[in-house]
Every structure is written in structure tokens, then in C-alpha cells.
Design brief:
The protein is mainly alpha-helical and 673 residues long. The protein has 26 helices and six strands. The two termini are 26 Å apart.
Length: 673
Amino acid sequence: MTDPMLPAASTALAAEPVGPAASPPDRPSLPPGRWIRENLFPNARNSILTIFAILVALFAYRGLLNFMFSEERSWIAVRTNLRLMFTQAYPEHQYVRVWVTVGLVMVLAGLSAGIWARWGGVTLKRLMGWLMSGGGLVAVGVLIREPSVLTDAAGETVRDDAGELVRESFAAAMADRWVWWAAALVLFALGLALWLRFDDLARRTKEIPVAWLVFGLPGLLVASAWVIRYGHYAFADGEFIAEPGQLVAMSTRVPWTVMWLLLIGCYGIGRVARNRAIASAQATADAGDDVEVVEEGAGGEGAPELPRDALTKTRAIVNLAWVLSPFFLYWVVMRDPEIDYAHVFSTMLPMGLAFGVAGSAVLWWLTRSDAGEVGRLAAIGLLLLAAFHWVAAFFGWYSMLQVARIGFLLLAVAGLLAPNFAGVAAQRRRLVGGWLFVVLLVFYGATVINSPSTIETPTDMFIGGFSVTLLVSVLTIMLSFPIGVLLALARTSRQPIFRVLSTVYIEVIRGVPLITLLLFFSGVLPLFLPDGMEIAELAAAILGYTLFSAAYLAENVRGGLQSIRRGQYEAADAVGLTTTQRTGFIVLPQSLRVSIPPLVGQVIATFKETSLLAIIGLFDFLRMANSVVPNQSQFLGVRREGLLFISVVYWVVAFAMSKYSQRLEQRVGLGQR
């Protein structure tokens, strides 16, 4: 019952049910002329700003087109060196390994897209706008681009008596560009036809699935390679091949077609698996059995409830495959290690079995319900033992394989986590199973990493270009994220020692330029390593990037941690949750959700900052375009074309991550109430 003394407005607000914010009223679209008047030319000041912005945009657009289509540009250098810029000098007879790597990535991408399968859609109105604006942009470009330079029978540019280039007339230029006129007309006509086909309500409500666009556009590009004669440009046995009127080489068309088919096929498999899991859960629910479900897409109205046992486990497996794939693809598939099986059976296998069996016994004992303080003291003892082995390695007191030191450290970490798995037999078996899996990964990884590669290239690095850029950025993001979360938790901890150490680390790293860290780990750190211990150039770069990125990620996560209200901590303590449970189940999920925008911004910045790899001598994407290609005898000094190309690639990847971040924010309901 409401208080009769309250005003009418307050009574109405008090009686209004609490729930998600109501959707805004459906408003019809404005006519084009009225929309332009209200949004672009509402008054004199905005009209001047609009005209000025249009003139600046046209000037920049014209300059870009004149640069791209200038007769002085040598885009053949980019076409010929595409393989070089993406994988450096990877041997051609071993190139099937590159395609296997890309194929496995396509398999994981397709399965992930199919299992989640909630991409949303693009409204017809937006799609029509894209088509018509694209057609208009092409038409404007045809008009404002300067006429082409005339050439003689030998292909040389024609100059007048004053030495100036002679260009064709405007009318001749418009006639020569009929292909671009046709493309503009097709785009605009398609958008206009859709606009006239549907009424205003249908344009604003009907949607095209995003999956159609994500998979359809690459499909069109792959299909065009079989029809359009882009030309065949390559280096074969040191000789330059230029065939302008030919189709793309079969060795390129077939693999990319297979990659696209793998993507589509695995998307279908993931979609079928998801639908079957939902159907099975629905059938079980109709039969009256209890089914544990998890709601997908918090904040999304009408989000379906998905069975935890089916989809959650499947997603966990796919996510684990994503985490392990960079290491497996780089060190196993691409490196083709030459494994010394005599060393494996004499040393690595017995040591791995010893760690697996002894570690399982120790963890099983530590997870007893009556372990108590004795178990915690034993875990701390394991940590001190692991630290002692690393100190002994630094001072050279005794020799020990590096993998053994890592094994002791991981066992100590597992021992510290053991109290969270104590009591229940199923939880204890899960910890032991996880330990055995980690031991298998560590010893197998140490074997393949320490085995020499069979790939022979002119440089020490067997891959380069975009492959190195992508590898460094992916590993940096994967390694720096957990470190950043731990640093953020430590900086907000009540324990002074953790708070001070994390604060000092974050402030010191943020006060040092990234290039300084890269130069330190690349050139200075090897001077401090013990005799017989080395660090690879790539590992040094990844270490510098990881430590630098972790400091910034920690501050982003700390901002999310500070958004959690004190009452939630008190509620967690009231129901008896431990500090680990409170952090893992209540604090971190909410803080990471709030931190999505700055985290994605840091990820994009990390990806772009990999261009600094060229400064420390690695053949990354930038160095290939800026130094390697311009020094080829066929393309001496051709630098601007390659730089523009890699700029476009950087922008496409960064833009894709930004758009995915926006969809992720919508999916989790960020910014909604």
C-alpha cells in the first residue's frame, strides 16, 4: 500500500515495477530531404561546419585516389611480395604447413561462430544505406580523381615541351572509367531497389543475419579469384614473373577456397551441435526432469536458456583449443621440430612420469578434508623449494633442467590452489586430472621447443612479416591478461606487501617507454643470464611486450574493480564465501564486464605497437614493407605502396576488433539498465 501523503508523481514512480528499461517508442524514418535539413543544415553555424567538413573529406579522398591510381605507383611490388610480407621466406616446398595452420584457425573460428550463433543482424535500412552510400562514394571518386597520364606505344608517359605530364581530357577519362561507373550504378541501384521494395516499418525491423555478411563477403572475394584476371606476379627460383592478364595462380586459389569451405562447414557443424543441445535440454525439461541451464546474453531481451552440461563444456573445449593453438601451431606445425627420441625416452618421459605421479599424490593429500593448516604449510614449503631452485639456477650452484624448475613451480601453484578443491572426491579428481594435463603440456612443449627446427630460411627466424606481428600480439595479449588481473587484485588488496609491490611495478613500467623495454630485453638482458642460458630474440620481444601491456591492463581492470559496491563484498562475506570464491564468482565477472571498452582499447594498441619490432631487428610486417621490398633489385625505392598496404591491414584488424567489442558490450548489456 502506498502512503497517501506522497504526491501523485511519487506514488506513480513507487508503483512502477523495477525491470529493464522500456524500449524507446517506434518512430518512423524521416524523408531524406528533411533528415538532411535537420541533421546537417539546421542553422547557419552547422551549415558552415558541414560544408567545411565535406570539403576536407573530398580533398583527402581525392588525394588518396590520386596516390593510389597514379602512374608513378608500382603496385606490382605489393602483389609480387604478398607471400614475403605475410610469411617472409618460408620454404615453398613446406608451404603446406602454412595452409594447415590457417585451416586449423578457420576450423576453430567456424566452430566458435556456430556454437555461439547469436551474432544478431543488420537492418535492411542500414544495409540499403551502405549500398547506396557505397555507390555514391565510388561515383564521387570517379568524378574527382584527376585524368590519367597519356602513354606512348612503348608504355612511357608523354610529356609536353615544358616537361609536364600530358593527361587525357575529362570526357575521355570518364569514358575510360566505365567499369567504375558500372560498379557505382549496380551498388546504388541495388540499394534503391531494396528501398522501394519494402515500406518504412519493414526497413527498420527486418534484419539480415550478420553471419551472411561475415561469410558472404570473403566468399565473393574467393570466387572472384576464379573469374577476374587479377594477374600472376611472383618470384620463382629468383626470377621475377609478371603476367598481368592471367588468373591468380592455382596454388593460391585452391587453398583459399578450401579455407572458406572449412569456415562454412565448421560453422554449420557448430550450429547443429548447438541446436541439438538446446533440443535435448528442451526434451528433458518437457519430460519433467531437472535440467541445469545457464542464461546466455545477459541484458539481451528474450535470450534463450542453454544447457550447461552440453554447451558450456563444448565452449570450454573450444576456448581451451584457442588458448593452446598459438603454441601448437607455431612450435609444432610451423617449426617442424626434429625431436631427439633417445633424449625423450631417457630423460623427459621418466621425469614427466615422476612429476605426474608424485604431484598427483601430493595434491591428493593436500585436498583431504582434514589437511587444514598443515596442508597450507606444505604448499608454502613447495613454493619455497621452487623459489630456491630458481635462485640456485641464477647463481649457478647446481645444474638442473629448466623444465624441472618449471615443474616444481607449477606444483607449488597447484598446492596453493588445493584448499579450493578439498573435501569432495569429484573435485579432488578434477584437480589431479588438471595437474596431469598440465604436466603433459609442459613436458611436451619443452620437448618441441628445445628441438631444432627443420625449416631452413636465410635468416634466424623461419617466419616473418605479418605472421610474426600476429604471433607476438596474440601471445602478448594471452600472457599479459592474467598478469594484469593479478596485478589489479594485488593493488586493491588489503595486504600491504602485495599492494606496494604491484603499485611499484605498475608505476615503474608505465613510466618507461615501450621501446626502452624492448631494447633492454633484446640487448641487455642476455648479459645478465647465467652461462649456458640464452633467450631467443622473439621470446625477448614477447617478454617485453607482455610486461608492458600487463601494467596498463592492470589499471584498466582496477577501474572495473572500483566500480563494485562495498555491499557486494559484505554480502559475499555474509553467506560464507572465501576470498577466492568472492573474487572469482562475484567481483571479477562484474569488473571485467565494466572494463570491456578499455581492455579492447589496450588490445588494439598492443596489436599496433608490434610495429616497433622492426627497431630491434625482427622482420615484422612493417620492416618487410619499409626495408626488405624497397631493397629488391626489381623494386628499388618502392616504399609508399607497401606502407599504405600494411596500414590498410592494420586498420582492418583494429576495426574488426572494435566492432566485435561493440557487439560484446551489447550482448552483456553494458551501459543498459
